[in-house]
Amino acid sequence: MRRGVAAALRLARSARLGACLGARLGARLGAPPGAPLGAFIGALIAVCATNARAGDYHADTSLRCSDCHVMHFSQSHGYGPNGSGVVRSLGFQAEPGLLRASVNDLCTSCHDGDVLATDVLDQENTGSQLGIVRTAGYLARDGFSSGQHGGHRLDSFDVAPGSNPSWSAASENRPGVGLTCVNCHDPHGAVGNNHPTGSQYRNLRSDPGFSSGRWVTYNATPGANDLTRDVFVRQARSYDESQMDWNEPDSQRSAIARWCLGCHTDMHSDSGFTVFASASSTKSATTALDEHPYEDEDLEDEMITQINSLGNRVKVLSSFGIWSPIGSDATPTCVTCHRAHGNGNPYGLIYRSGTGIPTENGDTNGTSVTDLCNQCHPGGSPFTH
Fold first, then answer.
1. Does residue 341 share a domain with residue 214?
2. Torsion on CA atoms 79, 85, 90, 94, rounded to nearest 10
């Protein structure tokens, strides 16, 4: 109750501040007192303040506006007494949204080697969470990254594999701007209208590609699993794969797969959600990859025996919230086989033998896609079942 009142008071203060600033700006622009301009700007600021409070990241105590935004593109001082304090660098030109730099330059100024933030770029992890196995793996960046990489590459203009209609960064970004972090993530965690919980896992956008309403929910209290939500987070703001697992609130639906389909629409389907993996699939048995599921199909008994025989396993969905041992409710999905950001293998595939030490590429004994297949398929081949 008190949290709700506090939130309402914050919103009211934001609205009053916005109305005041809007009225002053309106007056400077020659608008008469009470003109709609002031009310409009006040409402806009209030809405922005509301949306900025969703999610675990860049919100509330972790939200510091000046890290990303600058009022004048000429700052040479900090915000402490007499201009003291850290001054984050500016980009090459003024950017929309009062951003300090272009989106990718801005995001990687913190998320690539800064000890105060998680490192998401390239294999070497020198950020705030050293030594972890990053759940999503790592991104690469065109013109900057030199190591072998398969997956999402910042600044790329490549068409998303399986997109229908065809989608690339050019479909959404300004001319000349390739793939950016905000094509997948909302920096403030805004979720739009009608979201069932008000917070998206990892600040994922709810409208990737040409889609809308692609919600991926997670438990409100870290460490307490809520089987009605899509992700079980054991520790808030931890990127280590051991600190999360995938629930399956609807046994016929994978929320994270539906999210991926926002861009990779036909990667494993005819069109839309008529998926080859579904029990209701309309595809013929001769279609390539006809039987590999990403939702609505549980592992078979011999597959369960196989994966439970391994020391470390890839992630699967679970309706019961039990992943050790994996049970009859286990369903593979996109992130079972692929790192969302990518890694050093083609397509971000996870070469996990099950016998080595886990890594973002798979594990220390994993060397090929056969190791990945062998997680579920005895003998390493999926074509014997």
1. yes
2. 0
CA distance 144 to 246: 33
- Same-domain pairing of 139 and 40: no
Buried b (16+ CB within 10 A) or exposed e, 93-127: eebeeebbbbbbbbbbbbbbeeeebbbbbbbebeb
Bridge partners (DSSP) of residue 318 are 247
Between 45-59, 72-86, 89-103, 121-135, the lowest mean confidence (pLDDT) is in 45-59
Backbone phi and psi for residue 232, each to the nearest 5 degrees, phi listed first: -105, 110
**pLDDT digits 0-9 by tens, 308-349:** 999 999 999 999 999 999 999 999 999 999 999 999 999 999
Query: End-to-end distance of the chain based on CA atoms, in angstroms?
Result: 55
Global pTM value: 0.81
Q: How many CB atoms lie within 10 A of CB 324?
A: 8
82/261 Cα distance (integer angstroms)? 51
**Residue 61 maps to a domain:** no
Q: Which amino acid is residue 49, in one-letter code? A: A
Nearest alpha carbon to residue 239 among 339, 101, 143: 339
How do residues 219-253 score in pLDDT, each as one tens digit?
989 999 999 999 999 999 999 999 999 999 999 99
The fraction of the chain above a pLDDT of 90, given in percent, is 66
Q: Are the beta carbons of 115 and 128 closer than 8 angstroms?
A: yes
The burial of 62, by beta-carbon neighbours within 10 Å (0-12 exposed, 13-18 middle, 19 or more buried), is given as: exposed
Domain of 16 in residue numbering reads as 1-51
Overall domain count for the chain: 2
pLDDT over 50 (residue 116): yes
Q: How far apart are CA 230 and CA 249, in angstroms?
A: 6
**3-class DSSP state of 10:** helix
For residues 300 and 73, what is the distance between their CA atoms, to the nearest angstrom? 59
The answer to whether residues 201 and 341 belong to one domain is yes
Q: Is the pLDDT of residue 48 over 70?
A: no
Are 129 and 43 in a shared domain?
no
Distance CA 150, CA 264 (A): 15
Structure tokens at 209: 């590609």
Query: What SS3 class is residue 109?
Result: helix
